[in-house]
């Protein structure tokens, strides 16, 4: 068909520019990670709208047979637009309606029925009577006598569209935070349908012409604006769940650690948040990098610079969609009362340890003086006093070490396991000449560890020596490296760990029985803070084997 009139030229130009713009936006969206929820279906939606716009331009310039085909495809394109938009809304909002069998069945029935119905329309005319030439304004083909199946598919599509918009508006209504981008997409998608209604009612200046591509152009403008407003930066499901429903302070950061959302509790903890929306976190928190050193599980304590004496526990977790990192969730818990209790307990502990050490030293000093004034029977009692006092001092020292371990959770340092094992072996070989204490380990193995590694090894080696009835006990310390894991095993040939003390390792029971029980508890606390997989087994020839696993220090830390 020859294009000669100004109206035809203007429409071809408008539809072509609209198609090019939508195609460009489609290509731009392809740069987004495909794992972001809803981005693939939204890209398909834009590609479909671009094709529709190009088709509208092609109808005006194409020969009659091609134009007739393009006019017949107007209804299928509209149905596909709504189906893809519904899938997008379902994915983006996390409702996953599109995965339900009823929707899959609906799609199959609708598309098969539509395809077969249009192909056989010349036989039943239930979609339209005919496609005929209209000379209004300029010559073009239009539908004549729209039938009941045509309007049925239109109504089904409008109903599905309303359900999709309901899902998108639900995000806006549930959230107190910025959702302008969601509103733009929801209402922008209504423009093609509104213009489609105008076309169906023949209320436009050119009767029978499909004006839907004009609405598609406006939809493209709204979409471009929404993407600039962070439409795909944070998954709305994560935002709703994390920000709106949390009873703790919650801050949502994007992948660049910019503050995107926070709830009222977080604003109460950190009042300056309100002045720094969309700014980097370090504008609000000094040393913010510390919050991400042990993300996805680790906790740190933080005292915000406010007028209140407040302490917070900070836990940072990544927001991901498949393999793609979208941002961070920061959970802030008020631990002020807990910190105050610990402060009081530390004070009481220091006082008790100081007084205990002084009193025990006094007892041992007087016992040593009395040794010159008693006979053999009295000396037996003095030896018992000395042994008990020494045991109390040893237990007190272990308790001090345990306290250091449990209060140094965040203070993990690069530690050479091999050097630590060598020092322990040398000490106990000198202290117990009749014992055989050996080690099997590489020359250097560095791990990330809190304090307490040497104390844990010393307790396990000492237990192996002291509890072995053999006058020549044997203890072996083995260090094995497997990738990023370092497994330490202490094996002896003694009677094994008593059942009462095994429960310390198995269940974490607090040992109250004696010093060796406290020693095993020390090992338990160290592994709980620095490693994992604390186990004990019987050796192949009796005795016990206690093992635990530590995390190897990164290679760059070993240079």
TrEMBL record:
It catalyses: ATP + protein L-histidine = ADP + protein N-phospho-L-histidine. SUPFAM superfamilies: ATPase domain of HSP90 chaperone/DNA topoisomerase II/histidine kinase, PYP-like sensor domain (PAS domain). Keywords: ATP-binding, Kinase, Membrane, Nucleotide-binding, Transferase, Transmembrane, Transmembrane helix. It is an enzyme of class 2 (transferase). GO terms for molecular function: ATP binding; protein histidine kinase activity. Its EC number is 2.7.13.3. It comes from the Archaea. The keyword Calcium does not apply. Pfam families: HATPase_c (PF02518), HisKA_7TM (PF16927), PAS_8 (PF13188). The chain crosses the membrane at residues 6-29, 41-62, 68-89, 101-119, 150-169, 181-201. Residues 351-554 form the Histidine kinase domain. The keyword Lipoprotein does not apply. PANTHER family: SENSOR PROTEIN CREC, SENSOR PROTEIN RSTB. This is histidine kinase. The lineage of its organism: Archaea, Methanobacteriati, Methanobacteriota, Stenosarchaea group, Halobacteria.
């Amino acid at each position: 068909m020859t294009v000669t009139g100004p109206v035809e030229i203007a429409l071809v130009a408008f539809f072509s520019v609209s198609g090019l713009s939508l195609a460009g936006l489609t290509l731009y969206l392809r740069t987004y990670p495909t794992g972001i929820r809803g981005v693939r279906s939204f890209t398909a939606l834009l590609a479909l709208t671009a094709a529709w716009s190009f088709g509208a331009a092609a109808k005006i310039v194409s020969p009659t047979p091609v134009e007739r085909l393009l006019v017949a495809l107007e209804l299928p394109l509209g149905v596909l637009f709504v189906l893809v938009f519904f899938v997008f809304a379902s994915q983006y909002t996390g409702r996953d309606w599109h995965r339900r069998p009823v929707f899959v069945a609906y799609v199959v029935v609708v598309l098969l029925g539509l395809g077969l119905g249009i192909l056989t329309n010349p036989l039943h005319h239930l979609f339209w009577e005919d496609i005929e030439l209209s000379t209004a304004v300029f010559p073009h083909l239009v539908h004549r006598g729209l039938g009941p199946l045509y309007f049925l598919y239109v109504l089904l599509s409008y109903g599905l569209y309303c359900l999709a918009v309901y899902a998108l508006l639900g995000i806006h209504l549930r959230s107190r935070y910025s959702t302008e981008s969601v509103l733009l997409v929801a209402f922008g998608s209504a423009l093609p349908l509104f213009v489609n209604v105008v076309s169906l009612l023949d209320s436009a200046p050119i009767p029978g012409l499909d004006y839907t591509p004009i609405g598609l152009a406006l939809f493209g403008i709204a979409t471009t604006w929404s993407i600039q407003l962070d439409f795909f930066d944070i998954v709305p499901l994560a935002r709703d769940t994390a920000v709106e429903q949390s009873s703790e302070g919650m801050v949502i950061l994007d992948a660049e650690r910019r503050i995107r959302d926070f709830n009222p509790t977080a604003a109460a903890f950190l009042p300056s948040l309100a002045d720094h929306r969309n700014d980097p976190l370090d504008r609000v928190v000094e040393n913010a990098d510390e919050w991400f050193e042990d993300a996805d599980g680790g906790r740190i304590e933080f005292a915000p610079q406010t007028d209140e004496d407040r302490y917070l526990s900070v836990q940072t977790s990544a927001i991901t969609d498949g393999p793609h990192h979208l941002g961070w969730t920061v959970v802030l818990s008020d631990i002020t009362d807990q910190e105050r209790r610990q402060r009081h307990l530390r004070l009481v502990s220091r006082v008790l340890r100081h007084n205990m050490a002084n009193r025990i030293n006094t007892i041992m000093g007087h016992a040593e003086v009395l040794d010159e004034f008693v006979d053999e029977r009295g000396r037996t009692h003095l030896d018992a006093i000395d042994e008990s006092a020494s045991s109390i001092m040893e237990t007190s020292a272990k308790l001090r070490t345990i306290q250091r371990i449990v209060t140094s959770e965040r203070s993990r340092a690069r530690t050479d396991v091999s050097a630590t094992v060598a020092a322990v072996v040398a000490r106990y070989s000198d202290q117990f000449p009749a014992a055989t204490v050996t080690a099997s380990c590489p020359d250097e193995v560095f791990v990330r560890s809190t304090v307490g590694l040497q104390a844990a090894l010393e307790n396990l080696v000492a237990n192996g020596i002291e509890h072995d009835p053999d006058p020549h006990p044997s203890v072996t310390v083995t260090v094995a490296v497997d990738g990023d894991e370092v497994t330490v095993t202490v094996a002896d040939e003694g009677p094994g760990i008593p059942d009462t003390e095994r429960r310390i390792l198995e269940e974490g029971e607090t040992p109250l029985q004696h010093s060796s029980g406290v020693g095993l508890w020390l090992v338990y606390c160290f592994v709980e803070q620095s490693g994992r997989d604390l186990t004990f087994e019987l050796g192949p020839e009796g005795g016990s084997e206690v093992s635990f696993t530590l995390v190897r220090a990164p290679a760059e830390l070993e240079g």
